[in-house]
Fold each of these.
Amino acid sequence: MLRNLRRASQGIFLLIFLYLFLQTESKGANELGYPVKIFLDADPLLWLTTALATRSPERLLSLALIIIAATALLGRVFCGWACPLGALNDLAARLGHPRQRPLGWYRLKYLILLFILAASVFTLQPAGFVDPLSLTIRSLALSIYPAFSHAVSAVFDAIYAAQLPVLTDASEAVYSLLKKTVLPFRPPQFHQAFFLGALFLGIIGLNLVERRFWCRYLCPLGALLGILSRWALLKRSVSEGCDGCGACMASCRGGMGPVAEDGWKVSECVACMACDDVCPQVAVRFGFSRNKARALDLGRRRVVASVVAGIAAVPLVRITPLSKAMAADPTLIRPPGALPEADFLRRCAKCGECMKVCLTGGLQPALLEGGFEGLWTPILVSRIGYCEYRCTLCGQVCPTGAIKKLNPEEKAKVKIGLAMIDPGRCLPYSHGIPCIVCQEVCPTPKKAIWLEEAVARTQSGKEVAVKKPHVDLELCIGCGICETKCPVLGRPAITVTSLGESRSKDNQLLLG
């Protein structure tokens, strides 16, 4: 009964997670479904590391306190009963025959946690890279879900290409249903999608080596909850009827260790209670007790090494040439409402939610545009998509406040960059060909791109009336629609750079 109850709980939370993930999409003009950021809001690791890195008093109250309270009472119930990545790992483990004897590397995740906490104290925020909820959302949003969308589209394209009326009519109804339920509003495409997907599938594939490999040995959130669970009231007890058969070890989701009670590692128990179900002697029981569990022994040298490594990572990450120049990187265009770069990096969880809800697909995961610290943070790539003038969805889904919530009136005053024209590639300037696309699509109430009437001469001496575009430095907000719509293929004739962004006093074309 307990096993079935736990499986039902995992299934329900996974379905809720996937439902909220699908709802994290535009439902109309600046309207959003219930975002999956609810899970991130309840993430104790992101809550703690963001509070440490930013010294933010407003982060003291959080849904994460509910998870912390539940852990203090019942142990790592979140890992065994609610975590979506844990549920996916359990499903993957059923597909293979993982080894039954644990490797025993459980200390590794605690050392990773110490590294992250030490770095966070010194204002580096590495938790988003390995936090299980952030990792899962990022992987699904930027790789798995787009791959699913393109695969479904390919199947229906093949059906339409067959030109069989019966199949075509049936597929139309099915495709319409899918568009209303699980398919995205637009076909998503993201840089690094293959790498992110391979990384996620690799984590899932580790279950073929050992069940819940990620959860047992790598998950820093599980390590944090494991530390908190030391004081949990729900504990396991073993009666004298135990004959040491090892059935409980084979079924244990956490790989806790010896059969006997004195060797039981409470910090590794995910409260699956499988040992209670499978014990042939009915010697295992779970009940409430105030007895304090044994302290976790990580080894003094390992602890010191992890903390020192976390502290040393901060200057090492920030002394690279990429990081030194990132404030002036012309391609580092952040979403509207993004905090100043240093504060933005301290908060961004690299979860990918802002990229998922971007209406045009312009928000892409950064590689090294913002230095190693800015890996997988959002940047606007205007050649792919522009920032919709009335859209504020990215600020609505950000779980850590790295992107502020703005109303449309506030957003209209925010500059994320500046458009600049390349006369050598612009059709009216260089070739005498009339073109006013950039001015036509400019969304600002008073056009930020204005036109100068001029006369161009062809090689034969014929005069052609053209209108040469110019950018108004005060009116341009850097939305990038001019670059997206520019008809010049390859490198466009007008590009947006981060110059002039509202969030920086230094990254300006004209200082003072």
Amino acid sequence: MTHPSPRHLMLFLLTLCCAAPGCMSPRLMPATPIATNSDPAGNHTAFYDTNRDGRRDYAEQRDADGRVAVLHFDTNRDGELDLQVTLDQLDSSQSRELLIILDSVPYQLVRALRGEGRLRLFHEPSAIVAPFPVMTDLCLAEFFGVSPCLGIESRYYDGRRLSRGVVTYFLEGNAPWLKHVDAYILPINHAYIYTAPEAGYLHELYTIERAFFGSEQPAVCGYSVGASALGTRLGEAGHRTLLEYVDRFCQSVMQRTRGRVRITLMSDHGHNLTDSKPISLHKSLATMGYRDTKALRKPGDVVIPRYGPVTCAGIYTREPAKVAADVVKIEGVDLSFYRSGDGIAVHSAAGRAFIARSGDSYRYLATGGDPLQLLPILERLREEGKLDAAEYASDTDWFAATADHVYPDPLYRLHRAFDGLMVHTPDVMVSLEDGYCYGTSMFNWFVRLKSAHGSLLRSSTHGFVMCTAGPLADPIRMKDLAAELHNLGLNPRKAH
């Protein structure tokens, strides 16, 4: 999620005793089983002592593919596992639902951890292609079907003035998706989460646990910003810690419900697992003759909201073509985009391109260089007969060809960025290279970014989703994920 303004972070640190939640931890499965067993058929069983009396009272049996398929329970505490539950035989009438959204967890790391033996209650993870700009509010508004948000972040320009970012943030003004979430930490306490991310994250899991076991709702949704805090502060090590905790938490929930829960685990987007050097777009543009202002009044004025340090930015200007061409000359800027007629113009330091849309089809026209690195893919689509006479290919074909590209699904995502994702859409959007970030300078003094997000790049874009209820399409756009879950009999868009 977008980080609170560092200036206000410091102020709220002074009042943590009043504002911060009392830290509680959820019940977790023991980190290791007390015994394991493998049979000739390839089934592997891990036995646990969940009540710490020295005897096994719960077991997870993995099938030949390594997924937990059968659970065993000691129902009368006599040391014998007398109840067997086969997960795939439970239908929706026998189970509740739990959806856990982890902020900023990258797909590739989840795949790696599952390969190492964790997260085996779930089917294989699928990659989620997040919208651009890759920001929590925009991503989850698309997932829950409540777009548009007001801006890229809580600080945006409404055509007259800059919003009061911290007020918008704490009042959840840019987060219409939160009405679909049952358990989350209030934004006023996010300062605490970023100062003590591990304790804060565990408290969030406790909050989700309390919401699930403290109600009879058929479906419960919880969101964790602490996942982002752990990754931001500790990089890959932080993400590994949070995934181990949530795995043990899900095991515990499964054990306590005797398998009668269908759990979905997902993230809103990825994280680049790279140290980020701050850059000053506003100062660099000032050296080119632009004026960094709070309102557009004269030619040359630009408004560039600065909030949490991320790898994207929005620029408001009356000269988008000129600004887009100039901003890519700044160190750390990878790409810039602006609306040009009915299409989207793309600039990089080495080239230009234009993206046109016709109905459900797109055309990529490189007018100098190949800023999105799509010409080889375009040639392949041509050879496969997937281009029409005007060089358009269907959205379906473009998605299949580019979902795992260095810039995943760029043609759809860039059109969407300028069409309905935000109310106050910037005139120019900027994607930074990995290793750079833009935002308020004090946050970089307060927290050194070990991982960040926001850009069009795959490292930032690919979140993950995995279910105990069944496999999902892979990859999948964020906007299509709720329908995919519905096909498994799940209901992530329940009304409150």
Amino acid sequence: MMSEQPTDGAESTASTPVESAAENVNVAPETTPSVEASSPVESPIEDAPAEPESAPIAEPAAEAAPGTATEAPTMSAEEREEQARKREEERKRKEEERKQRDAAYAALEAFKEAATAFEVSINERVKGGLRGVFQGLRIFLPASQVGLRKNVSDEELQQLIGQTVRVKVHELQSDDSGHKSAVVTRRDILLDELWDTISVGAVHDGVVSSVTAFGAFVNIGGVEGLVHVSRLSRSRVTNPADVMRKGEKVKVTIVEIDRDKKKIALSHREHEADPWVGVNEAFPAGKRIKGKVQRITDFGAYVQVSPKIEGLLRISELSWTRRVKHPSEVISVGQTIEVEVLSADEQKHQLALGYKQTQDNPWQTLAGELPVGSDVEGSVQNVSTQGAVIRVRDAFDGFMPRSKMAGGRGGKVTLGVGDTVACVVVDLDPTNASLILAMRNEDGSVAGQQQSNDWQGQRSRDTDRERPRPRQEQEQVQPGMTFGDLLKDADKNILGQ
């Protein structure tokens, strides 16, 4: 009995702390998320050392309690409330920012649709350009869209940080996650301002951006204009690359503006020194110079006699003797020839050249070699309704009128190109380089000579230049008759009244 009492007494004595410990163990998991549950856990543990006898039994509960307290939050109720409040404020702030970005994005969509300009503040320099903010929405301004020129220096970009600039929407981006961004441009606004300020006749300093076969494109403050090949220089230009190079700074004048098509026509020739100044003194008539054949036309050739001066060599000045059909028969493009200046005009920018003048004139000796009446053999070069061109001695082109062909007027004479014919020189004028030929008849007479003599005799007799009357008229009006003899008596009476 006595042995059980201590046991009962021990059990009864230890029952309270054990139950408290057990209760604490069961309560701790339920009260872990709660701020209020932390106090009951700490109280039993603090009260346990007051009963020494129950200490050995209460140790397991004491060990469980600290383990349970380790898993529970260590912050106080006030701290948890503050944390929850901050999380709610952050959520509301983000929600407000999202709504603000959505509103800003909707406004940008309206700006883009209407092509409206708006203002943004530039905050920082980033890779590829600048970054700013519009009503809470971050925007990106590429360096290529900052100014009129596509290549903007870093110094120019840095100067815009902290400033407010006017821009237009260039591109809008939105994905499924709700991310929204905007790319803006300042260049379009500057271009519109430039188009409003430029005018025909204005002079600008520009930079050659590209050179083509038909001219050169020059950038004038952000817009490009075309300088046509005909407006590149005061002299004729065949290859624009000979006048302008890419990247070269030049002065140009606006000659035409098409604002609807955004096109500008420019001219550079007004800003080039006139190479024709002093041409009369530099190229006097009779001076012989060397030049390079630049181009050939049907009526002649253009010969360059100085870097920016070309003279015209007409087809008639190519040969003393030949009737040249095309200049390519005598000269070719790229050939260097000697020419003689025939005339120069500084005001009209004209220079007349001669090629045959640099050679001996065979017409001066031809008169002694082929006097009028001499026989010569020639080759038919051309046949027309007026006559034929006959080349004699493989150098001189003479003309044979159809009236001087064998058979005379009305006679049928057939000549073909390349035929060889026997001719007679009937006229020779070395001054005008004129040679007239005729054919011989079968009887040895010169064709057309008799008709020519008869005509000359008739003209000498008809001094009043009247046409000879027909023989029938001569028979009707006999010598000695008067006008009155042809009238009737009644007519005579009328005239007498």
